[in-house]
Write a structure and sequence with these properties.
Layout lengths: L13 H12 L18 H8 L4 H20 L7 H15 L1 H13 L1 H20 L24 H4 L2 H23 L5 H26 L9 E8 L4 H6 L3 H19 L3 E3 L15 H14 L3 E11 L10 E3 L4 E12 L7 E4 L40 E5 L5 E8 L6 H9 L4 E6 L9 H16 L3 E5 L4 E4 L5 E5 L5 E8 L6 H4 L3 H28 L1
Parallel strand pairs: 1-2, 2-3, 8-9, 9-10
Antiparallel strand pairs: 1-13, 3-5, 4-5, 5-6, 7-8, 10-11, 11-12
Length: about 550
């Protein structure tokens, strides 16, 4: 039965609100809560509402409200660390997330409803990828991340990355919209339930078959080379670390915990969290603390991978980067970096990596190199702001107690949300991954669990095992299939030691980084070209 008046015109913002909430709560939260399936149909109400609209202004209003609730429901916990930064994130992120919806609306008006629906998976995936590459992006809410804990279903990201999950989800929503429209024309039948079951079966078949094939061969890898890694979770209040604790207290806690771990577990490497050492330990004025750390590493005969704050002074002021600070005493410009270093017992100086992917505004003002006078606009958190941006990816190397040479990469916190960035480390020879982070800013919200879940995808994409070390949790190990083990409960000072499988294989995704979203971008360009050129072609046809 064709309805004379669409119900969607009568219910105002309800569909937009419903879509926003469904998408928002589909993202990972606390253990035991699995609402990922909501993303499979969460966009349907908004799409059906947009079908009835012909005003760009109204479409923008509906899309913005929906995406705002999506953002708020999934990352409300940012406000626990900084209210101003959270508000800035909510409104800016919402604006960027409306872009693919508005492009879809534009195509609907130009090329028709069905064409726009089929184009939407390409548009959405292309935009997510392009947006993540922008300095101003907050790519946390890439739609594919919502399925991070369904490792048994998403093994195919080793082919196409997390972008393939986003494409899959949007396509699922589009097919359900088409099934609903078919049911609307004959609402007395049970056709929608049958069609929905067929869609679900068809969409699940290929991912499940691929995952089954992957897991069937998982046990064949028992002879892999392995490295024994210990994670130290010190459980230090991040605000106290930066504001009240002394250098001696901080370093001593890590050394004491590591002493007992080395004696009992005899690991090949120790991992400490992000900014474990919140002062410039490599500068001359910290010699006493540096020697204490280096002496401990030599005594243990075990390398330590740790987060720390680094500073680089520019002898030549013309070489300074935008936003560099000025030391009046030394009369030199310098930059500070959120960094990681590998301290080895067989060397006198550590290898150092400066974080490259920085949180917009919280760690660095986007596009500061073009508008350096805006460098003051960072959001200060416990006195931390305006980090310098690293410019060199680093693959560390060390030897195990058995003399085996091992290569490892270190992702610092926010960097672990970048699929291509992580895959580049595997392409450069990293045999396993580490993530060091400090999620204690977000109290006991599900923010840390959400962040931890995303790490599963990085392991599957690259087929690399991972050690994830967090100051207050969540710390654990991940195998190359996304399965976690050796977890330390959050907000507890504990350590965990487990073997990690080493791998030098290169998944299809590592060999062809971001090929899939690039193809989606090319398809989007073709579709937009057709839509923009249509009026001109029509005019030419009438002549």
């Amino acid at each position: 039965m064709q309805l004379e008046k669409s119900i969607y015109k009568k219910i105002g913002l309800a569909p937009a609100i419903l879509s926003g909430l469904l998408l928002g709560i589909s993202f990972p939260s606390y253990p035991g809560i699995h609402l990922e399936l909501l993303a499979w149909f969460g966009l349907v109400p908004l799409l059906l509402q947009l079908k009835e609209l012909h005003s760009f202004r109204e479409a923008f209003r509906q899309a913005y409200i929906s995406m705002f609730l999506f953002v708020l429901a999934s990352v409300w916990w940012i406000s626990l660390s900084t209210v101003f930064g959270a508000v800035l994130t909510y409104f800016a992120q919402t604006f960027f997330m409306t872009v693919p919806v508005l492009v879809f609306f534009f195509l609907k008006e130009r090329l028709g409803w069905k064409t726009a629906l089929w184009a939407l998976p390409f548009i959405w995936t292309a935009w997510e990828w392009l947006y993540l590459d922008m300095d101003i992006s907050f790519g946390w809410l890439t739609l594919g991340n919502s399925q991070a804990n369904l490792f048994w279903l998403v093994q195919y990201v080793d082919l196409f990355g997390t972008w393939a999950i986003s494409f899959w989800l949007i396509l699922f929503n589009v097919l359900l919209v088409m099934a609903l429209e078919k049911w609307e024309s004959d609402w007395k039948s049970a056709g929608f339930l049958k069609d929905a079951a067929k869609i679900g079966g068809a969409m699940l078949l290929l991912p499940l078959v691929y995952s089954a094939a992957i897991f069937l061969q998982a046990d064949e890898n028992s002879a892999e080379r392995k490295v024994r890694v210990s994670i130290i979770q010190p459980n230090i209040d991040p605000f106290a670390k930066w504001e009240t604790m002394t250098r001696h207290e901080i370093l001593t806690r890590h050394l004491e915990m590591s002493d007992s771990v080395v004696a009992e577990q005899k690991p090949d490497m120790l991992v400490w969290p992000e900014t474990t050492i919140p002062y410039f330990i490599l500068l001359p004025n910290a010699t006493r603390y540096r020697e204490k750390l280096f002496s401990a590493v030599k005594k243990w005969s075990t390398p330590v991978l740790t987060g720390f704050s680094d500073a680089v002074f520019y002898a030549d002021s013309t070489l300074r980067k935008p936003g560099a600070k000025y030391d009046r005493r030394k009369k030199q410009y310098y930059d500070t970096f959120n960094s990681a270093m590998l301290v080895r017992p067989d060397t006198n100086w550590p290898e150092v990596f400066h974080k490259i992917q920085l949180v917009p505004f919280a760690e660095r003002v986007p596009y500061m190199e073009y508008v350096p006078f805006l460098s003051f606009a960072t959001v200060e958190l416990a006195g931390i702001s305006s980090w310098g941006q690293g410019d060199e990816m680093k693959v560390f190397s060390f030897q195990t107690s058995a003399g085996d040479s091992v290569r490892v990469s270190c992702l610092i916190c926010y960097e672990s949300i970048y699929p291509g960035f992580t895959a580049e480390y595997a392409a450069r020879g990293a045999e396993f991954l580490t993530v060091i982070t400090n999620d204690g800013w977000f109290s006991k919200s599900y923010g840390p669990y959400q962040h931890a879940a995303f790490a599963r995808l990085r392991s599957i994409e690259t087929r690399r095992a991972m050690a994830r070390c967090a100051n207050t949790g969540i710390s654990f190990f991940i195998d190359k299939y996304g399965r976690t083990y050796g977890e330390i409960p959050w907000w507890e000072a504990l350590s965990t030691t487990e073997p990690l499988a080493l791998s030098s294989e290169k998944s299809f995704y590592v060999r062809h980084i971001d090929l899939f979203p690039k193809l989606c971008s090319a398809m989007t360009i073709l579709i937009l070209t057709a839509a923009i050129g249509l009026p001109y072609w029509n005019r030419l046809g009438k002549k």
